[in-house]
Amino acid sequence: MKMIQKKSVFLFSVVATLLLLSGCMYKGEEKAVRENPYEDQIELIQKAVNSYKENNGGLLPIKTREQETDLYIKYPIEFSKIVPAYTEKIPSNAYETGGIYQYVLMDVEENPTVKLVDLRIAERIRDLNLKRHINGKLPFKESVGENVYEIDFKAMGFKEPLKVESPYSDALLPIVVGGDGHFYVDYSIDLNRILQEEKPDVKEGEDIRYLLSDSYPILPAYSLPYTVNEKNEPVFMKR
Questions:
Q1: Residue-wise pLDDT tens for the chain (239 aa)?
Q2: Alpha-carbon distances of 32 from 67, 92, 227, rounded to whole Å
C-alpha cells in the first residue's frame, strides 16, 4: 500500500512538473510571437498593401495623421482595410492583436514600404510625460547637442535614468529632451556602430537615420535628425 502511495506521489510530481514546464514554455513562446519582427509577417502585409493600392487607384490602407506628425509614425496601416480582403489576419506581433509593434508605411509617394515601430519606446516616453505634468516643470541638464539636453531624472522623481532597449543591438539607449520640451530616444550608439563597422558613404548635413530605417525592419521612431561631424561621428543635426 505504501509502495502504491509513493508511486502515486511520484507520478503526480512528474505530471505537475511537466505541466509547469509546458506552461512556462507556452508563455515564453507567446512572448516571442508578440515581440519578434517576423519577416514573413511583414512580407504578407507588404503584399496586401500592394494589392490594395493596385485595386484602389493608388490609395493606401493608412490611418489619417496630422501633417506635422513624426515621419516614422506618420502613416500607420489601417488593418480593417486589408483584413480579410487582402490578407487572412492581423499579424500576431501587431499592437492590434496584443503585440508590441505598430505597422506603418514609409516612402508612401515613391515606394510604399511596410516597417515597424517598437511601441515600448512610446511607453517610456509616456512615462516621462506623466512625470513632467506631475512636477509641473522639465529639468534640463548638460547640453548634448544644439538645443538637445540630458534629463535630470532625479529631479523628476526617478531613482535612475530611464533607457530603452535598442531595436538594433544589445545596447540600452538614453532618452534626451529637446528645447521644444519633447522627449526623444538617442540612437547615437547604434549609428556610431554602423559608421565604424560598415563605413558607409555619408556626408555632413544629411540626415543619417536612413542607415537604420533602410537596413532594419524597425524604424528609429521618436528621434531627432542626426548627421556626422568632421570626425565622421553621429551628432544631432542643427535645427
A1: 544 454 454 444 544 444 454 554 444 555 555 668 789 999 999 999 999 999 999 999 999 888 778 899 999 999 999 999 999 999 999 999 999 999 999 999 999 999 999 999 999 999 898 888 777 777 889 999 999 999 999 888 889 999 999 999 999 999 999 998 899 999 999 999 999 999 999 999 999 999 999 999 999 999 999 999 999 999 999 87
A2: 34, 10, 34
b or e along 140-174 (b: 16 or more beta carbons within 10 Å of the residue's beta carbon)?
beeeebeebbbbebeebeeeeebebebbbeeeebb
